Amino acid sequence: MEIRKRVLRAEHPDTLTSTANLASTYRNQGRWKEAEELEVQVVETRKRVLRAEHPSMLASMASLASTFWNQGRWKEAEELEVQVMEMRKRVLGAEHPDTLTSIANLASTYRDQGRWKEAEELQAKELKICSRVLGAKHPSTLTSMNNLALTFKAQGRNDEAILLMEKCFQLQEQVLGPQHPYTISSLKALNKW
């Protein structure tokens, strides 16, 4: 990364990609402050050299939001997630997989703040779109189903949660296999409920 900065300059796309990759490595290691510092650099630089709605810019903003989320900095994460979601809807369309990921991320932020109705609304919308666009058995659809079931459970809506999680588990078993971590996680949730 340092060599690219020296040779190509800090604003070169390859340098920004290297910086973003290092930030991702830090985030995966739980080194939040180091990740955040680099992600802020990338976002600020990309704001100067790219248009606001460029896919790389949106990906950088989403990464920074994820770093905020992992630190429990919900308001900062939410602010960026809303921006990314709205821009992706406008640029890519409401049914694009990246837009759906943005919706899921924002719903997760709401859920982690105990904002159940807002989380449920987004999760139900995302699940409906995923089912229609990607198919009922697509892994992203199954993740959406799992998340909505967890939100139902958190609201004390046990019957709805169990029904949806049972359906999710059955499809995960078919699609991902019985030993897949997501399948096992869904089964553990059902057994606990």
Query: What does the overall shape look like?
Result: elongated
**Main beta sheet, described?**
none
Low-pLDDT runs of 5+ residues are none
Q: What is the CATH top level name of the largest domain?
A: Mainly Alpha
* Strand/helix succession: HHHHHHHHHH
Task: Give me the secondary-structure topology.
Elements (H helix, E strand, L loop, with lengths): L1 H7 L4 H16 L3 H18 L5 H16 L3 H19 L4 H16 L3 H18 L5 H16 L3 H18 L5 H12 L1
Helix pairs in contact: 2-3, 3-4, 4-5, 5-6, 6-7, 7-8, 8-9, 9-10
Describe this structure in a few short sentences.
By secondary structure, this protein is mostly helical.
Q: What does this molecule look like?
A:
By secondary structure, this protein is mostly helical. The protein folds into 2 domains: 1-92, Tetratricopeptide repeat domain (Serine Threonine Protein Phosphatase 5, Tetratricopeptide repeat, Alpha Horseshoe); 120-193, Serine Threonine Protein Phosphatase 5, Tetratricopeptide repeat. Helix content is 81%, strand content 0%. The protein contains 10 helices and no strands. It has helices spanning 2-8, 13-28, 32-49, 55-70, 74-92, 97-112, 116-133, 139-154, 158-175, 181-192. The longest helix is centred in the middle third of the chain and has 19 residues, at 74-92.
